[in-house]
């Protein structure tokens, strides 16, 4: 079935076409929802509602000429995920005020068993865990700008905030992410048997 | 964030790693999705796609002031509907007083006055005559004290026989009081103050006049 036929069948509420559409995009969209959410439970909510949103928006794809179906689905899913996470106001606004605590360099111990951390080769699971531990506003900006290649203007338009706040959130996200990755890598190294 | 912080993450690598990543597929999700998607399919599947959806991209900064203006305008229009300016004009008009000529007929007025006078005439009774005599008797004996007058009112027949007595102050008041009042008058006369002889400059005499002072012997 060609993409055009698949879409028209989905619009007509054909169950088999919908199932085919679901099977095609479930694995990709589930990972997107995982990195946009704080945990797997929230990711499932985002995924289900995001899929329903994409199904409802499929009729708009007919007029699209610039985007492919994959790009259209991804774009719609991401825009829904961003608005969904922003709608959880108590999480989005309250948790954004929390700052990461930096290690105090004055308490550096020369004889402490320090291991070299290679930030160039990070494990995917560690990276995903670190991204999930970011506060929602920082996580959203990092995902949009760094991973999904949204410009700062596009991100600010999508999140309905100023470009300046997007920039500051991105800076904080970068700092916090690196610190969290370092911490997580240290923990994973400590857990490994000698 | 400290100034010593150096960002070492390779964002390109992260992008490549995360963009193409795929998650685990759970078959139970399809059933869950059907439960979630049913309301969407009901609203959009049958009628939703037939009706053209209007997506007006008007920013919040325009919608909010417009709504605010509409709200204020509506409220002011509602308040103006309560106020009726036409009614106020009718109230302000003064109704001119026109004299009724029927009220100024002299003959009728005179008759009316006569009738009213006839109605007002007092009915004279026996008691009232007796009472009216009392002041005539009393006019002669006004010098008498009040208690006597009260008695006369109760028994008007006897009062006519009583002769008025002339009472002098000396009979009524005791003698001592009269004397005291005369003494007080005498005492109240001004007492002339004694004028002391003043010493004038012309009359003063020099006490040292004619007396020679003894000279001191300075040896």
What attributes does this structure have?
heterodimer; A: 194 residues; mainly alpha; 9 helices; 0% strand; B: 219 residues; flat
- Which segments of chain B are poorly predicted (pLDDT under 50) over 5 or more consecutive residues? 128-134, 136-146, 148-154
Biggest β-sheet description of chain B: none
Helix content of chain B: 55-70%
Mean pLDDT of chain A: 83
Give the termini distance of chain A in whole angstroms: 54 Å
**What is the number of helices of chain B?**
10
Task: Tell me what you see in this structure.
The complex is a heterodimer of chains A (194) and B (219). With 194 residues, chain A is mainly alpha-helical. Chain A contains 9 helices and no strands. Chain A has helices spanning 3-11, 15-36, 40-57, 69-87, 89-94, 124-132, 136-147, 152-159, 163-191. In chain A, α7 packs across α9. The longest helix of chain A is centred in the last third of the chain and has 29 residues, at 163-191. The radius of gyration of chain A is 20 Å and the shape is globular. Chain B is mostly helical and 219 residues long. In chain B, 55% of the residues lie in helices and 0% in strands. Chain B has 10 helices and no strands. Chain B has helices at 11-19, 28-48, 60-82, 85-92, 106-120, 126-140, 146-154, 156-159, 169-172, 175-187. Chain B starts with 10 loop residues before the first helix and ends in a 32-residue tail after the last helix. In chain B, 2% of the residues are buried. Mean pLDDT of chain B is 68; it is low at 128-134, 136-146 and 148-154.
Give me the secondary-structure topology.
The complex is a heterodimer of chains A (194) and B (219).
Chain A: H1 3-11, H2 15-36, H3 40-57, H4 69-87, H5 89-94, H6 124-132, H7 136-147, H8 152-159, H9 163-191
Helix pairs in contact in A: 1-2, 2-3, 2-4, 3-4, 4-7, 6-9, 7-9, 8-9
Chain B: H1 11-19, H2 28-48, H3 60-82, H4 85-92, H5 106-120, H6 126-140, H7 146-154, H8 156-159, H9 169-172, H10 175-187
